[in-house]
Amino acid sequence: MNIIRQLYLWAFALFLIGPIIVVTSVSFNSRKFLSFPPKGFSLRWYVDIFAENDWFSALLNSLMVSTGSATLAVLVAMPVAYTAWRYGFFYAKALFSLGVAPFILPPVIMALAFLLFFTSIGVHGLMINVIIAHMIFLLALPLVTISLGLESIDRELLEASHSLGADNWTMVKTVIAPMVLPYAVAGFAFCFVLSLNEYIIALMTVGFTVETLPIKIFNALRYGYTPIIASVAVVFLLLNIITFGLIARFSSLPRLLGALDE
User: Fold this and answer.
1) Alpha-carbon span 148 to 156, nearest angstrom
2) Both ends of the chain: CA-CA distance in Å?
3) Residue 58, SS3 per DSSP
4) Is the dihedral of CA 63, 65, 66, 69 positive or negative?
5) pLDDT (tens digit, 9 = 90+) per residue, 49-81?
6) CA 149 to chain CA centroid, nearest Å
7) Which one, of 129, 124, 107, 82, lies nearest residue 200 by Cα?
8) Taking the alpha carbons of 175, 177, 181, 187 in that order, is the dihedral positive or negative?
């Protein structure tokens, strides 16, 4: 039975890792077409991401959209989560629920809603559109992570700091903020990664006027299958690995995933 179990685990691991191995190997192909096994070895396609203006511009657009939407999401989530945790106001809890609701809906429904909203107010095809759309759609992530961080704070610490003369602002700055910061960073990272890879909402809110990397990949597929597409996928993979690696290194990853303290 142990041998069967190990064979099953190895087969399952190969099933998960196999596509990554194929895409990574194809990205080093020296020929100008996708083929596996690769024909020769070349780093040309990784260089082209930064050397070709259209690919590099798409990369910069994706980074600006992801950074902007993640930053706004954390800035909006922080006061809502804090107010709901500290004071329990009904309107704060209602705002919390509204912030989580868009993430529950299918992305295509949210994309259509954003498209109708921006066209109705006469604003379409701007980068700020997709930044705002991603911020609203992904707001649930920092709301949840920051709330988990706030729930991990022992309220006796707040009572002790208050008894020592600390006002609310001093308490937030010296006690709450340092303890919640890793959870806020984790929420930022989750938003950043998902915004970086999101395609449907970006396409519906800006069309082809602002090309992010996912939109650029879709456009490139219409004209051929070059290894640069595989190299972009590997770059995405590396960014995801680095981001979640930093979360695991500097935050409580089990608690962020919902584990309860013993």
Assistant:
1) 17
2) 33
3) helix
4) positive
5) 888 788 888 888 888 999 999 999 999 888 888
6) 19
7) 107
8) positive
Closest listed residue to residue 58, CA positions, set 239, 191, 220: 220
Write out pLDDT tens, residues 196-209.
Answer: 888 888 888 887 77
* Residue found under tokens 């780093």: 43
Structure tokens at 33: 């077409």
**Range of weakest confidence among 64-78, 104-118, 159-173, 195-209:** 159-173
d(CA 6, CA 12): 10
CA distance 180 to 148: 9
The CA-atom distances, in angstroms, between 130 and each of 148, 202, 204 are 28, 5, 9
Dist CA 88 CA 149 (whole Å):
16
Q: What is the pLDDT of residue 72?
A: 93
The rounded distance, in Å, linking the Cα atoms of 150 and 144 is 10
Nearest Cα neighbor of 60 from 216, 224, 186 is 216
Rounded to 5°, angle at Cα 81 from 79 and 87: 90
Question: Whole-model pTM above 0.85?
Answer: no
CATH number of 44-256: 1.10.3720.10
Alpha-carbon span 250 to 238, nearest angstrom: 18
